[in-house]
Automatic annotation (TrEMBL), chain A:
Pfam families according to UniProt: CoA_trans
Gene (UniProt): catI
Biological-process GO terms, alphabetical: beta-ketoadipate pathway
Catalytic activity: 3-oxoadipate + succinyl-CoA = 3-oxoadipyl-CoA + succinate
Species of origin: Pseudomonas antarctica
InterPro entries: CoA_trans_fam_I, NagB/RpiA_transferase-like
Metabolic or biological pathway: Aromatic compound metabolism; beta-ketoadipate pathway; acetyl-CoA and succinyl-CoA from 3-oxoadipate: step 1/2
SMART domains: CoA_trans
This protein's name: 3-oxoadipate CoA-transferase
A GO term for molecular function: 3-oxoadipate CoA-transferase activity
Keywords: Transferase
E.C. designation(s): 2.8.3.6
Chloroplast found in the keyword field: no
């Protein structure tokens, strides 16, 4: 059974230094509030897994929480580069970042394999690509029935996965909809799973065949309305495209980035205070 | 109607999408061209985005690959793993529509690094869905602006394979799809030459000279025996494109054409 906890307590109890952590959400339902809380608590040496690192990992990497990044597309969607990721890879700031690079099909399959309790995933991929030359974990396997040579990649099995979702009930059953990405697979592939939700209700009223994660498959559920910002939760809030654009100049420079983290993350006690501070700053403009 | 070279590129790319074809769409220029096709010549084109929407009919262009607009206008939304497993790898995609940072003469694509992988000069976003789209879609179209920096003699990194080293490379690699069948730029259209599979210019956009194309290509680009001139964008095409860009700009708070 999932415990209904404050996000601060969930991160404190279930995210440890050195863990392999997947904060997933394919553009939609990105658990930004949890990323902030990990920075606030100064977690270190994390191996971060995420198909699209996005702003959430740009922040964690720049804040010095990460030792390694496993990913498949590292940009600021519709805007440009992730400057903190690039600075870590190109100039080793604030520390060296080991990268393990895959394709989307590979990581999506690797999450499916992880959720399925399998050690590796098999897919038709990478023939002719240079990625296997720089990632020794991308190997091949020969089909025992047809002889076809296919790609084999290790499954993703995080110590802890964090996702955002729309609704939970009071027992901690979670309902999500819209663009699901790899949310379900990432949740079920992990040893522990924290879900932040827009609201907690008496009854999910989930239509048959909905994507519901049962409480007994989760570790903690935290009520964090708007917790995906600047990503979004379908039916609750819209993607804040302007914030994605505004992030570019903030992250471009080490000084402005560090000042932003100090002001907005270390200078706030939780996500609702962060939201209030951000709203006040935007209003002042 | 007067038009820009970027508009010519988008219109020329849109014309390549046959009505009723199933298209796996990359974000940015491919998404713009694919939606223009849907709004003009190919109303029944099926647009699939890697985030999960199948049959998306967005009223405004998505800024990200996972905008809510894609989900709301889709026939169905499936998990990302399913997109790659059942719909792409399962052999259900007619056209993979890709952008690129760099291409070479065989339509191989680099979106990973400029310079050495471990000591990069420029770190690019990486693979995303492209390697498997390039491998498994029945055919591939590539759209990008042409310059000597983007059309290079030798890629520092092959992220997604086109025709490999040319000739029967794809066959030897065991790739199921036919690979890239067209590169559409702001200057011209290139198609693979039979046999060698090297991309040669088959059409110039109106007003573009061969010298311009040569200057904007990092390898010794060749021209097909018969080079046609692309038809100018029609009023219908331009109006549909400009309306789409205006709606998009209004929705995202951007300058028209920036999406």
């Amino acid at each position: 059974m999932a415990e209904i906890l404050a996000l601060r307590d969930a991160v404190k109890q279930f995210v440890n230094d050195g863990d392999t952590v997947a904060l997933e959400g394919f553009t939609h339902l990105i658990p930004t509030a949890a990323g902030h809380e990990i920075i606030r608590q100064g977690k270190k040496d994390l191996t971060l897994v995420r198909m699209t690192p996005d702003l959430i990992y740009d922040q964690l990497i720049g804040a010095g929480c990460a030792r390694k990044l496993i990913f498949s597309w590292g940009g600021n969607p519709g805007v440009g580069s992730l400057h903190r990721l690039r600075d870590a890879v190109e100039k080793h700031w604030p520390q060296s970042l080991e990268i393990e690079e895959h394709s989307h099909a590979d990581l999506a399959n690797a999450y499916v394999a992880g959720a399925s309790g399998l050690p590796f995933a098999v897919l038709r991929a990478y023939a002719g690509s240079d990625l296997p030359k720089v990632n020794p974990l991308i190997k091949t396997v020969t089909c025992p029935f047809t002889g076809e040579v296919l790609a084999a990649v290790p499954s993703v099995r995080p110590d802890v996965t964090v996702i955002h979702a729309q609704k939970a009930d009071r027992k901690g059953n979670v309902l999500l909809w819209g663009i699901l990405g790899v949310q379900k697979e990432a949740a079920l592939a992990a040893k522990r799973c924290i879900v932040t939700v827009e609201e907690i209700v008496d009854d999910l009223n989930a239509p048959m065949n909905s994507c519901v994660l049962p409480t007994w498959a989760l570790t903690a559920v935290c009520h964090v309305p708007g917790g995906a910002h600047p990503s979004y939760a379908h039916g609750y809030n819209e993607r804040d495209n302007r914030f994605y654009q505004a992030w570019d100049p903030i992250a471009r420079d080490r000084g402005t980035f560090t000042a932003w983290i100090d002001e907005y993350i270390h200078g706030t006690v939780d996500f609702s205070e962060f939201q209030a501070k951000l709203a006040a700053a935007q209003e002042a403009k | 109607m007067a038009y820009s070279t970027n508009e010519m590129m988008t219109v020329a790319a849109a014309r390549r999408l046959k009505n009723g074809s199933v298209c796996f769409v990359g974000i940015g220029l491919p998404s713009k061209a694919a939606n223009l096709a849907r709004l003009t010549s190919s109303p029944d084109v099926v647009l699939i985005y890697e985030s999960g929407p199948i049959g998306a009919k967005p009223n405004v262009l998505p800024l990200s690959i996972g905008d809510g607009e894609l989900a709301e206008t889709a026939d169905t939304v499936v998990p990302t793993g399913e997109i790659f497993r059942y719909w792409l790898q399962g052999g259900r995609i007619d056209v993979g529509f890709l952008g690129a940072a760099q291409v070479d003469r065989f339509g191989n694509i680099n979106t990973t690094v400029v310079g050495d992988y471990h000591q990069p000069k420029v770190r690019l976003p990486g693979a995303g869905g492209a390697p498997e789209i390039a491998g498994s879609a029945k055919s591939v179209l590539i759209i990008l602006k042409q310059s000597a920096r983007s059309f290079v003699d030798k890629l520092d990194f092959i992220t997604s394979v086109g025709h490999g080293e040319g000739g029967d490379s794809r066959k030897r690699l065991g790739l199921p799809g036919a690979g890239p069948v067209g590169i559409i730029t702001d200057l011209c259209i290139m198609e693979p030459e039979e046999g060698s599979h090297e991309f040669v210019v088959t059409a110039l956009h109106p007003g573009v000279t061969r010298e311009q194309v040569v200057a904007a290509t990092g390898w010794a680009i060749r021209f097909a025996d018969h080079v046609s001139i692309t038809d100018e964008p029609t009023e219908t095409e331009l109006t549909a494109l400009r309306d789409l860009e205006a709606r998009t700009a209004a929705a995202h708070g951007q300058a028209p054409g920036a999406a």
